[in-house]
Amino acid sequence: MFAAIMVDKTEGGQSVAVKSLAEDELPDGDVSVDVAYSTLNFKDGLAITGRSPVIRKYPMIPGIDLAGIVTESRHPDWKAGDMVVLNGWGAGEVHWGGLAQKARVKGDWLVPLPAALTAAQAMAIGTAGYTAALCVDALVEAGVAPGDGEILVTGATGGVGSVAIALLKKAGFHIAALTGKMDQQAYLEHLGADRVIDRATMDQPGKPLQEERWAGVIDAAGSHTLANACAQTRYGGAVAACGLAQGMDFPATVLPFILRSVRLLGIDSVMAPKALRLKAWDRLAHDIDADVLDVIAEEIALSEAVDVAARFMSGEVRGRFIVDVNR
């Protein structure tokens, strides 16, 4: 038997509880994992609170991330004793996810836990941090260099934003952090932000073309914030869009892309191919300091995750949450 957060749905609505399940109830997969840690992401918050139809199959164990040790494998890449990480691939949406003590998944979904990281540290990073690394890699691939000017990071106190700031600072960039939590300026500066900007300056409708300010952007907000960020990006700059915290709309024009040759880079973490995942995790393993993860992340028990998810969605928290599934 193992403990798991289980989300179910009936005519009376959605229910969420920590339940005890038998291993033979696990879904199909060619790799079984004893989960050490999971985490809470924005998508997990949506799933647990029912705020958005993230879950497409009930009952469901949420959790788009996990880190743990392989116990059984029929996949050629993995053997018992291997330490692995899973991010995305429909876990917590259509396949039972990581907020449980055990998981059974497809081996193709897994990547090795980097030797430089513990399982807890990998989940302090989680999909949010892995997405941040994908964004940084995309900007660098687009030719954005530290000497080109400031990088804007929106949603700066969130998981993506927090890790993105730390990675960008390590890579030598100057960073402007956009946030609605101006009381968190010291936190953002500790991570590496050179200055902190109130999101109220960018979250309302703006002109289609504005003063050139940013060499690059990592955006987790969408909507007017993304539109304004594009309108303010310098000639030849790039914008990595990875989130929709403000909204999924994009009320913009084509002017920044035509008149300033701005590139809009869509960043998907769920189905990203293995080569991109390995590159992102390599950056994370080498460029994230343990003390930064200690500042970003807070550890909670599996039994606390449901309550924290509700706080997460109300905007009461910052950074990342590691979930110790064994307590």
What does this structure look like?
This protein is an alpha/beta fold and 327 residues long. The protein has helices spanning 42-49, 119-141, 159-170, 185-191, 223-231, 255-259, 274-287, 290-296, 305-313, and strands at residues 2-10, 13-21, 31-40, 65-73, 83-87, 102-105, 110-112, 151-153, 175-179, 195-198, 214-219, 233-241, 263-266, 297-301, 320-324. The strands form 3 sheets. Strands 3, 4, 5, 6, 7, 14 and 15 form a 7-stranded mixed β-sheet that branches. The model has no long low-confidence stretch (mean pLDDT 95).
Low-confidence segments, given as residue ranges, are: none
Shape, principal axes of CA atoms: globular
- Total beta strands: 15
| CATH level-3 fold name of the largest domain | Quinone Oxidoreductase, Chain A, domain 1
Q: How would you name the CATH homologous superfamily of the largest domain?
A: Medium-chain alcohol dehydrogenases, catalytic domain
Which structural category fits the helices and strands?
A: alpha/beta
Sketch the major β-sheet: 7 strands, mixed
Q: So what's the CATH class of the largest domain?
A: Alpha Beta
Strand content is 25-35%
How far apart are the first and last residues' alpha carbons, in Å? 14 Å
Gyration radius over CA: 20 Å
Whole-number average pLDDT? 95
Q: Spell the H/E element sequence.
A: EEEHEEEEHEHEHEEHEHEHHEHE
Q: Supply the number of helical segments.
A: 9
